[in-house]
Amino acid sequence: MNSGAKKRVVIGLSGGVDSSVAAWLLKEQGFEVVGLFMKNWEDDDDSEYCSTRQDWLDAVSVADVLGIDIEAVNFSSEYKDRVFSIFLSEYSAGRTPNPDILCNSEIKFKAFLDHAMKLGADHIATGHYAGVREHGGSFELLKAKDSSKDQSYFLHRLNQAQLSKTLFPLNDIEKTEVRKIAEKLGLSNAQKKDSTGICFIGERPFREFLNRYLPTKPGPICNDMNQVIGEHVGLSFYTLGQRKGIGVGGQKQSTGEPWYVAKKDLLNNTLFIVQVHDHPWLHHAQLEAEQAHFISGQAPRFEEALNIAAKTRYRQSDAACVLKVSDEQHFNLKFEDAQFAVTPGQSAVLYDGEVCLGGGIISR
Question: Are 15 and 159 members of one domain?
């Protein structure tokens, strides 16, 4: 590339308002911007729940208004191999995985990054609410200014090579401002509803979706006195802390308060539920995590005990804790205050102030 040429940024354009405004911001900053629309799921592509076609039309419309090129690329094969297969195996084992985290590390910042480099990109960009900065010769992942939209939790498995090539244009912008910019630009998706749920499931009923891929295996539902009070459809279909869709309403033993999923006994295929939010089965002062990943590329020394903060689920405030790394793949967290429904398969994500340090998969 000539020294006077603009730097090329390939941005993931999803058809949503966030990535659209992020693309405009990059163009305003003087980059040559190219849009890339990723198709990651093909099963039941014509169903009422799949919005891929409309998302593509929205992305094309945005590219037209912004005056940038756009290309569609199909990563559905990579998605099934690297994300969906793990998603199913985790649920089969009674855990509750977070496929959006795996999608980011394996698809959006790996398959997408590789493709963008083939297009001559100097950087890639996305509409995530997060930040990246170079500090002391390495790259740090930062929380976004808009704390209600911060997505660093989902990005904690990114590595130095990925962060060194990544731009997050929305780092310092509030979501309300993003929509105002889209309105001023006349973008058709300015008021488009934010996507919710797991990336490949969308708005469809989760249990109905999962039932297509995993067999039901009914078993007893017991309370904390080991009394059978119902029947579950299969342990895979429940997550710790869940309070809806358990199917035991109107029990004689009931106080009228909601039931919560508290334990899974995989050996005996038994689901345990309790009726008190503060029940000790639902609160844990420590956890162990595996598949540890540290963004700096280097784990803390094993003998160190670090005072940091962590999240055990996305919609959660930072919780003060002590981190102790046992080996390169495992760490332990001890919290100042017991945490609600710490769930195997979910991610424990580590923070030092605004800096995301990494995280791991909760094992127990």
Answer: yes
